[in-house]
Amino acid sequence: MPTKNLAFLTFLLLFAGILCQCESAAPTEEKEKVNANFYVRYLADALQLKGQATFFGSDSTALQIPGGVAFMGSGTQERELPGQLTRYETTLQTPYQTNSRFTFKLPQTESQKEVTVSMSALTDFK
Questions:
Q1: Neighbour-count burial for 88-114, b at 16+ CB within 10 Å, e otherwise
Q2: Strand partners for 79
Q3: In the chain, domain spans
Q4: What are phi and psi of 62, to 5 degrees?
Q5: Residue 64 contacts by C-beta under 8 Å, 6 or more apart in sequence?
Q6: Strand locations in the chain, DSSP E?
Q7: Per-residue pLDDT tens over the stretch 15-69
Q8: Which residue has the higher pLDDT, 4 or 112?
Q9: Bridge-partner residues for 117, per DSSP?
């Protein structure tokens, strides 16, 4: 494998974004749609797994998750972004894993939601 490709793999082995639509029960029994954006990145040389999640209401306004979001069983930090957007993120030191898991509890719901992002490793560039 050429050194150039190996260096690129060193910095970024894998990245994935996924959009998920989850449903949350509103007090009037109408279901409000919640849009979520989940991002996962893995850097092979550093054994570094990064996860980010942002949530939006059905009217595209930013949505906060009262209990926060867990990524791979670990808590995340809340980052305030412009436009009153909250991003939940964390970086872990871990060997590569095919499945990455986000867990959270949507506002006005009783149960935890879990979203799994499945990724295949990039092993070669041509």
A1: bbbbbeeeeeeebebbbbbeeeeeebe
A2: 87
A3: 3-118
A4: -65, 145
A5: 55, 78, 86, 107
A6: 14-25, 31-43, 48-56, 62-63, 69-71, 74-75, 77-81, 85-93, 99-104, 113-118
A7: 333 333 344 444 445 567 889 999 999 998 999 999 999 999 878 788 889 889 9
A8: 112
A9: 100
